[in-house]
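May I ask for a protein sequence together with how it folds?
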Amino acid sequence: MSSQAPASPVASASQRAVVIIAAACVLALLYFGREVLVPIILAIFLSLLVAPWTRLFRRVGLGHTSSVLVAVGVLAVVVAGMATMVGTQVVHVARSLPQYEVTIRTKVKSLREETLGRLDFLQGELGKVIDGNGQGAAPATASSAQLPFVAPPYLTNAPGEAHPASASTKATSAPLTLVTRVLSTAWVPLETAGIVLVVLIFVLLEHESLRDRFIRLAGGTDLRATTAAINDAGERLSRFFVSTFSVNFSVGVAIWLGLTVIGVPSAPLWGVLTAALRFVPYVGVWLVAALVSVFAAAVAPGWSLLAMTIVLYLFVEVVVSQLIEPFLYGHTTGLSPLAVVVAAIFWSWLWGPVGLLMSTPLTLCLVVAGRHVKALDLLNVLLGDAPALTLPQRVYQRALSGDANEIISEARDFLKRKSFAAYCDAVLLPALQLARADLSAGAINTVQQTAVRRAIVTVVETLDSHESKWSRWRRRPSVLDDANIGRSLRQHREDAFGRWQGPLTVAPGSVVLCVGLGSMADDLSTELLTRILRDLHIDARHLFIDDFTAFDAEPHPDATKDAVSMVYVVSTHPEAERDAYDNVVSVVRNRLPKACIVGVLFPEPLVTAEATLPANAEVNEVVSSLEQAAQQAIVRIPEGGAATA
């Protein structure tokens, strides 16, 4: 066995090396194969938009092939029409720019006077103050005087020198050069569009077959997991595409109409650009807004058109992002905001503008894969919006760091929805189970134990709304040095209310006793139950089994007879503490024969199977959580009254 022990680190190191090499190969494949992969990915994503229309045409009565061809044809016509309109608008804007030259020069001059002009004035005044005599710097000499500015020929409209020999050659070659330049510029987009169109047709024609092939390759024999992953990815992507496309199309139309109303030229172009670039998360719409604002400032002599353009974009984006999008799909893509931004940077670096547009759906596919493939779980943790740690794990981690304030903040958010008893059952006690497991394994040192103990004490006392706050300042300095948190918290109450945690002259049947079995977990659970009941205005007292003997050894002439109506016996390990539980129940029944005994038997931690709870004939009720125990007390003891039968 000793000879085989060192093999594990070597194997893990080799596995890490394989993972790193595989990741590097995947990145290289994505980068160098982008000319092939980008059209295919675009076609697959477009198939998610076109597939509903294909199914609609099939329900109308068209065949499968006819439905695909009609849907793709309509998509091609719409895209070609939009591209033609955008191109026409771009040409119109380019031709109209010289008309706005005077306005642009006036605006630039005005901005210069308001910024650099004021700065030059302040600089001159500051120079006078520094000079001391109010004269400023000495006048410039004649040799250094500013010479008149002579504009170069390329900045003026003056005709250059004639070149009659080459004029005819340029005139004849200009059309051919223009056609060549246009074709060379448009060839790459047309080539990509043609490939996407062809791949889209075949993807739609073999949609079912491609899905079956992918399930066979990815799932092997585990068809259930692969089918679940594909359905999850398809549902999320479909919801993302349909909802995002609808919202962005509506935003583009709203911007189009708004710009037309306020008088910005080429409003259709800006509406289309807004709808397209809004697919770029967070920054796309504001890039278009900045461009349109600059254009609006250039076409109008005043500043009102610029102000109205900015207000229009702000109003539309705020209404859409804060009201319409949460109402339609509630931001349920499953991605964290940081992941969306990082993914946009990564995919734009990898595939350029097309990668920027496809960054969110591509990252969504990676998150879905991480949720269903165990080897890719890292992607779900890094990119998904689900919390990386559960609530108990977060409480334990913050307690190890001694950060009680963050625990309290999260607890108050929890308490806005549920009760303190539910918080203890769902968060605090499971977190302490994690601490107890690490303590048993020797995984935490003394400093960390002290940090956890102080944090839990601070959290419990801060969340306690019944006991007076001034009593917390009366605690003894050595109380927090006790390793038992439950006993420490009980000692705080004794310091504030006396040895028996309250007066002994009370109404009959108004006192509830909470008794633990002696372990640290039992004492803390018992103390939490006591505080929960006191928050409900029930006179609950936390006692140990030895306190019954101590009470009998002291004279209590003012003690009310039959003051105790209920006794809770708390056990966090019912199976292991069966004998101790039976002994405590027997002692309580002998001393308080009329009291209602309720056993609080918590389920064993990290045990999924239902365990058989120890039965005891002397116990009236058995509950398995603090919330159930609180409900028992509410039923039996009305607020401000005695126990009911």
Observations:
- The domain at 504-645 is CATH 3.40.50.280 (Rossmann fold).
- Residues 552 and 591 are 10 Å apart (CA to CA).
